[in-house]
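Here is one chain, start to finish.
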Amino acid sequence: MKEIKITGVWYHGSNLIFSQLRKGSTVTPWKELAEAFSHKPTRLEYDDDGIIKHNGKKKGYLYIIDEPIEIGKDIYQHPNSKLDINAEFLTKRSLKVKLVKGLPKRAKCFWWKR
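Its structure:
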């Protein structure tokens, strides 16, 4: 089981460009996890050391939530997530986001270490 710390910074990964995140979208405090999800993998896994492996191949974008949010009020733990506690939250309302960077299209599975 991976311990995922909540630092107050929240991320979202997508293969689309936008300025407002829709209600029901996923957010995470784990930057590399958001980056991995931006490539729209059909399979994603990580180990206890935080090494992420996935098969996503789309060009992606990393976003940061650009307004104050609170757990319980604005976001809540994803009830059906297969990931560890604190890895994946759902939004209760639309949230303002800021594009951090584009992420290149990948041709194969790859890894990130946290």
